[in-house]
Design goal:
Elements: H1 3-10, H2 12-29, H3 36-45, H4 47-61, H5 69-87, H6 90-114, H7 119-138, E1 143-144, H8 152-155, E2 157-158, E3 161-162, H9 163-181, H10 183-193, H11 195-200, H12 205-230, E4 233-234, H13 242-252, H14 264-283, H15 288-312
Antiparallel strand pairs: 1-4, 2-3
Helix pairs in contact: 1-2, 1-15, 2-14, 3-14, 4-9, 4-10, 4-12, 4-13, 4-14, 5-6, 5-7, 5-12, 6-7, 6-12, 9-10, 10-12, 13-14, 13-15, 14-15
Keywords: Cell membrane, Membrane, Transmembrane, Transmembrane helix
Membrane topology: Multi-pass membrane protein
Organism: Aminobacter anthyllidis
Length: 316
Amino acid sequence: MTNSFKKILLGDQGLVVIFVLAFALVSVFVPNFLTERNMLGLLQSVVTVGIVACTMMFCLAARDFDLSVGSIVAFAGMVAVMASNATGSIMVGILAALLCGGAVGLINGVVIAKFRINALITTLATMQIVRGLALIASDGRAVGINDPNFYQLALSKLFGIPSPIWVLAILFVVFGFVLNRTVFGKNTLAIGGNPEASRLAGVNVDWTRIWIFTLQGMVCAIAGILLASRITSGQPNAAIGLELSVISACVLGGVSLAGGRAAIAGVIVGVMIMGIAENVMNLLNIPAFYQYIVRGVILLLAVLLDNLRSSALGRR
């Protein structure tokens, strides 16, 4: 295998080739995969992972991690439902969830950037704390939705496509623009490439990292609101293990664990690969226990691909 071919295979073009081949194979060999109902179901199933991946991409690109995203999604969904029930206003519930999600992200960012605590340890701690708050607030039980209009956040459609899919598409466009066309996006990649050089070049590294985690929290809140609407209740145990699926999708999509490299197109493909894997296992009635093994294998393959990409691009 020549070096140029390896670079193409391990780059964004190679990822697209892998995705197209995988899609073609499952279309041929998996019954009912290409039906309209299944395609919409597939897109619906990747909404939560895809929304959170939009900002996890920035975390990883800046050499950070956020393991608290699943807990924030569950907590924000709980807050949205409880605040809506208490006030009778869905808008108040949405705003309360966004504020709570942003607050958790802000705390993560401040602790990591200002107190120099490792991101892995910080977000592991907030993952436990926030999940505990969700369980305490609900007494460990699901909280039902009083206002039926809350369901419409996930059930409403535009041009026959469910609203959450439109939200996901809009967020992909917005954060793709932020990454590629704004100073914030360029600073994020610069920090991931070399934090000290970025600081010497005048980049406010601490505040950039704080903003990344704050945005992460707010985007998790959006995912939590839509998830609560879709499952028709606030669930304190929702989104367990979400962080691993999101990180796997990002790394599959070419976001470097070493920082400094990210592309929204790759993340979209990574999210879709994860979604197709889950969808195919469900269509083939593979038991849930085996699905854990498949997810673990995908995560290992994602890390292996990241190492191979780094070697092919001369970063190691």
